[in-house]
Amino acid sequence: MAGPAALLVSIRHQAGALCTLRAAAAPHSLLSPPQPSHTQASSTSRSGTASHSPGEDTEVSKPVGAQKLQEERKALGKRPKEGEESGNLSPLNPDESRSERLAQPGLARHETLREMALRSKMSRLVEATSLLVQVEQTLLLPLLQQHPLFLHPKDSIEFRNICSHMALQREGQQFERDLHEAHQCLKTIIEKLICSLAVSPSDSYIPVQSALRQILRDLLAM
């Protein structure tokens, strides 16, 4: 059996994990697709009009033809480069297959949905941790003075360590694995608390059980 001291240890580690989670949940790009190079696009656009270079034009011996050619050169010099007129700086490569072009929008949508899912999962983890600490401080801690119960501070220590490791990753597959482990660890903490409260003969723990069950449902919500 454990009293308020053991719960305070758990709360301290959970509060530390909460601070780490809030910092890790700050807006950042998890899956940013590569953007086309502006310099490369501009050079490609210029190469598309290289066939109009004055040095490559055929000389005309007749004066009238020469004058007409000069006028055409001036007109070509003032004409907007292909791609700039429509505002598109990345002209399509004629060698690029249609299947490759069609696959790109789908990939971008898949990455965006994946990023949204990660943000949603992180948000649920932050909210559940915050609510758990509040319930333990305001409801459970005062009751432990009259009715001690079984607690597991080691789970809270592990939870804080996972969150600290996750914050160092910030992105990638390891970040996702740490996020999943943090979810599972917090789920274990709440479930063990509910089980400990269930074996207690005191009816005063019923509101605490109800609050913990609601936190667990919100944490696992899809």
TrEMBL record:
Residues 28-53 have a biased composition (Low complexity). Residues 69-84 have a biased composition (Basic and acidic residues). It comes from the Eukaryota. InterPro entries: DLEU7. It holds the Pfam family DLEU7. Residues 28-108 are annotated as: Disordered. This is LEU7 protein. It comes from Jacana jacana.
